[in-house]
Structures are given as structure tokens and as C-alpha cells.
């Protein structure tokens, strides 16, 4: 975004357009559906990275639902919602860390075929959502959090496909655990970025404003 350094507040963007609302509804439905598919497959395949990605789908579905609910509200309320979303994304990252450690201690070797097939499906879904939301990446912290989530998802899906290839080639679980760790870092860094933007916006609004 030209003319804006890291952490500064972006220019106001109209978040009430029918186009943005429709994009959020599509993103919500796609993410909620993929959560059910990927979590079931992740548990069946014993894949930490698939389960992590599935939980990310669930978090994003909630993210889009919150974004729809606060459309047209004041900047302060939208920024407060972004604080909640950033904290939730951070909690997701910590869960992935714990789940990865669990599978590491138990020596889990996931099914590479299931990982690859579901990972490809998830990549197609997330790439479509990311393309749909790309036009809204430079709005306020709420709009940018939506884009950041979609971008991280597509990157995570590519990593899951790489993990599936690694598991297939080595017949070991460490590629799956490595990718789960990378996804945790993505979640934690995305959470920090969203929180930084949201708190910057809150500092520009008087405490008594709504």
C-alpha cells in the first residue's frame, strides 16, 4: 500500500458495498464446508497439518461471520472486532503448537494419499476465496484481517501438499509436523499483524466514541 508504513492506519474504505457483503458470504460458506471435510479427513489420516488447516477453516468462517455482522459499524467497533479476531488467530496458533507436540511424542505417521487429495481440494477452495477478497486487502483492519486469513490459508495449503509429498517419500511423520509448525508461525504472525493494525486504529478514535 503506497504511502503507508507498517503499522499506520490505512485510508477509510467503504465496507458496506453489496460486492464486499457477497464476497464475505461466499467465503463463509466455503470455509465452513471445508472445515467439516478437512477435519474429518485429518482425523482419519492422522495428519496434524490437515487438522491444523481444518481448524483454520473454522476460524476463518467465524472471522467472515463477524465481518458480516459489523459491516457499517463505526471504526472503533470494527477495530475492537479485529482485536477479537487477532486474539482468536493467536489461540489457533498455540493450539497447533500443542497438537504438533502431541503427534511428535506419539510418532504419528499420517496417510500421504489422503493428505494430498484433501490438501489439493483445500488449496482450490482457498485460492478462489483469496482471489475473491483480493480487491479488499487495503481497507481497515477488519477488511485486511479477512485478506490476511485468506492469504495464509492458501500458503498453508501449499505447505500441506509439500508435507504429503514428504510423508510419501520418507514414510515418516516429520514432514507433516514441520508443516504444522510453519502453519502455527503463520497464524501467530498474522495475529500480531491484525492486532497491531487494530490497536493503531483504536488509538485514533476517542475512548468515548462509538
TrEMBL record:
Q: What is this protein called?
A: Cation efflux protein transmembrane domain-containing protein
Compartments in which it is found: Membrane
Q: How does it sit in the membrane?
A: Multi-pass membrane protein
TM regions (residue ranges): 23-45, 57-75, 87-106, 112-134, 154-172, 178-199
GO CC, any one term:
membrane
Keywords assigned: Membrane, Transmembrane, Transmembrane helix
Source organism, top-level taxon: Bacteria
> Record's Pfam families?
Cation_efflux
Q: What is its main location?
A: membrane
The molecular function terms in GO held by this entry are:
monoatomic cation transmembrane transporter activity
Among Gene3D superfamilies, the record links this protein to: Cation efflux protein transmembrane domain
Taking every annotated instance into account, which residue ranges of this chain make up the domain Cation efflux protein transmembrane?
24-202
